[in-house]
Amino acid sequence: MKQILLLFMATIAATMAQFDFTFPDYRRTSLGDSIDIASMKLLKEIYDGSSDKNVVASPLGVLILLSLYGSGSEGKNREEIMQLLGSNDYKQLSDSYSQLSRKFSSMNPSYLTLANKVLVSDKFSVTDKFSGTAREYDSEVSSIDFSEPKVAADVINDWSSKKTKGMISDPVSESDIDPATAIALLNVIFFQGHWHVPFNASETKEKEFNIDRSTVVKVPMMHLEQSLFYWEDKDMGVQMVELPYKETKFRMIVVLPNDIDGLPEVLKKTSEKGLLENVFRMSPPGADISLDMPKFEIRSKIDLNSILQKVGVSSIFQNGSTGIVKESSVVVSKALQEAFVKVDEEGATAGAFTGLVAVPMSSLSQPPQPIPFKVDRPFLYAILHDDIIVFAGTYAH
């Protein structure tokens, strides 16, 4: 039985610029709902297993490659993948993910790059069916000599660096490549967004951030006071605010626990019910939001072998799949992801703002007091396109 490497790379960079903005009509779909639950399950396990609670991941990259891998799998291997991905109809599932993959890969590369690549050992050949499925996922397929791990790692790293504009240039090392590898499935998602509502860099100040109930540090806090979509969920114990990007239908959702040490419980609850229910409840609250939010940069290297097994996908590491390469069954030996996020006010034009929400107000009335949204404790964030979670993470210190 030969080995297979699954590799996921993702990067996000938030910057500011001037673009026209059209008010999006967000749609909620069954695919978005299933990605929501699976993404939050993955994020919880990544957070729980990380010693550094500053985490960023692209669950979508993981789900796309699992869906692709499932096309060459059968039995328990496919069943576990389908269960995580929230489907009991594999053809419908594969069609949904291949359509999503083609849609994202055809977007403007100035702000979004999604790319899939299948690297096949020069000693093997992919099955006709898997090759056809890979094409449906808009995936490149090429041959490589895995018997020279350093050369193979260089090829993968070069591809990642080009697709992420140098942000993720060394996702694998020579030690990650087993010379016996038959095939590697690769995915990159790169997003460079521009805030619709810009932060003014001159208002960024060092302010207190509560790591826990007994530890306070100073971090650079950006400030914004505008009308933003907002929601409170008392049962989950959170406030939520939406920061839209200029790029149509992209937005960041910030989920702030009410309690300083409330993030683990929030992650537990979102892993059970997801985020979308609350996201689609968000609306203008009738007053401006006075937002203080950390400026941050996070890079995560994630060993997905244990993470996937914790969310119910273990068979692919133990049992061979026969429908991927012609000459042998394959088993997953390593699954990993490197992700990067940068959220700041770089490039902001002071005072440049196009109102997101207009709140009718009598000329004689006094404007309501702004609603404070002070992100001064560990929180959850997610970047969505429409109803699809593309990136998710936590900031804790």
From TrEMBL:
Domain Serpin: 40-397
Keyword Glycoprotein: no
Any GO molecular function: serine-type endopeptidase inhibitor activity
One cellular component (GO) term of this entry: extracellular space
Signal peptide: 1-17
A Pfam family it matches: Serpin
Keywords recorded for this protein, A-Z: Protease inhibitor, Serine protease inhibitor, Signal
Superkingdom of source: Eukaryota
Family: Belongs to the serpin family.
UniProt protein name: Serpin domain-containing protein
Organism from which the protein derives: Euphydryas editha (Edith's checkerspot)
